[in-house]
Specification:
Elements (H helix, E strand, L loop, with lengths): L6 H15 L2 H19 L6 H14 L14 E3 L14 E10 L2 E14 L8 E13 L7 E12 L3 E6 L5 E3 L8 E11 L6 E8 L2 E8 L1 E2 L7 E2 L2 E3 L8 H14 L8
Antiparallel strand pairs: 1-2, 2-3, 3-4, 4-5, 6-8, 7-8, 8-9, 9-10, 10-13, 11-12
C-alpha cells in the first residue's frame, strides 16, 4: 500500500505562516519594521529657504498693524543765526534775538523785537510813552520758499509821566524739546516797569508748543536792606497744570531765574 499524507497535513501547511508569525523572533522583527515605517512617514523634507521666507512674510502680513514700530520723530536742531540780508523785511523796530531751528514741523525762525513810540496827547493829558515787545514765529517748507508768519505775540506797555522800561530776558528765550516728541517748545520771558520808585517789575513767561500755549504772570520779588521783602506773587495759567511734568519743571526753573526781576530796571 502506498502512503498517503493525512488530510490534516494540508490544513497544517495552510496554517503554517500564521504559526510562524506568532513566534517571539518574528514579533520583534515586525515591530521593528513597523517602527521604521512610522519614522519614515513622519519625516518630511526640510523646508527650502524660499518657503521659510514666504512663511515669514505671511506671518508679518498677518501681524496686527499696531505691532509695527513707528518711525521715531525728528529731533529738534538749533541752527546758526541768519544774516541781516536773510532777515530783511521780517521785523520792525530793533531786533533783539533770533532762534533758528528745525523740528518735526520743518524749518522755524523765532524773532524778538522791541519798538518805542509816543502816543499823542489827548486834550490836557500828557503824551504817553509806549514800548512794544513782539515775538513772531516764521515757518517755511524749504530754503527755496519764503518765510511765512505762523503767529505773533505783542506786549505793548504804556506809561504816563513815569519811568518806563520793558524788555526780554534774552537768556531765557529758548527752543527746547522737553517731552521728546520732536516738536519745539518756544519759551519767552519778559519784564516791564512803570513807576517812580522802588516797585516790583511785572514779569511774564510764555511757552508755546504747536497750538498749545501756557503763561505765567507775576511780580518781581523786591528786597531792600532793613525792610521786609515784598512782591514776588506768581499766577499760573490753569492749563499749565495739565502740561507734561518736564514742561512744568522748565517753567519753574525759568521763574526762579527771573523772579528777582531785571537788575538794570529803574
Amino acid at each position: 500500500m502506498n502512503w498517503q499524507p493525512p488530510t490534516s497535513t494540508r490544513h497544517s501547511a495552510l496554517l503554517w505562516p500564521r504559526r510562524l508569525a506568532t513566534t517571539r523572533a518574528d514579533r520583534l522583527r515586525l515591530a521593528l519594521l513597523a517602527t521604521i515605517a512610522l519614522g519614515v512617514a513622519g519625516c518630511g523634507a526640510a523646508p527650502s529657504p524660499g518657503a521659510e521666507s514666504a512663511g515669514s512674510a505671511a506671518a508679518d502680513a498677518d501681524a496686527p498693524s499696531g505691532q509695527v514700530e513707528a518711525a521715531p520723530p525728528a529731533k529738534l536742531e538749533v541752527l546758526p543765526a541768519l544774516t541781516d540780508a536773510q532777515l530783511s523785511g521780517l521785523y520792525s523796530g530793533t531786533l533783539l534775538k533770533q532762534v533758528v531751528f528745525n523740528d518735526i514741523d520743518g524749518a522755524g525762525l523765532l524773532l524778538l523785537s522791541r519798538s518805542e513810540s509816543t502816543m499823542p496827547a489827548d486834550g490836557d493829558e500828557d503824551p504817553v510813552d509806549q514800548v512794544t515787545l513782539r515775538a513772531e514765529l516764521y515757518r517755511r517748507a524749504d530754503q527755496k520758499t519764503p518765510w511765512t508768519s505762523r503767529w505773533a505775540v505783542e506786549d505793548p506797555v504804556q506809561c504816563e509821566g513815569l519811568d518806563l522800561e520793558a524788555d526780554y530776558f534774552l537768556d531765557q528765550v529758548t527752543a527746547t524739546d522737553l517731552d521728546n516728541d520732536g516738536r519745539a517748545e518756544l519759551t519767552l520771558a519778559s519784564h516791564s516797569f512803570c513807576g517812580g520808585g522802588i516797585d516790583p517789575q511785572q514779569l511774564r513767561i510764555g511757552l508755546r508748543q504747536g497750538e498749545q500755549y501756557y503763561e505765567v504772570r507775576g511780580e518781581s520779588l523786591v528786597q531792600v536792606e532793613g525792610d521786609e521783602p515784598f512782591g514776588g506773587e506768581r499766577q499760573d495759567d490753569p492749563a499749565l497744570a495739565s502740561a507734561a511734568p518736564a514742561v512744568r519743571a522748565h517753567v519753574d526753573r525759568v521763574w526762579e531765574a527771573i523772579k528777582r526781576g531785571h537788575a538794570g530796571a529803574p
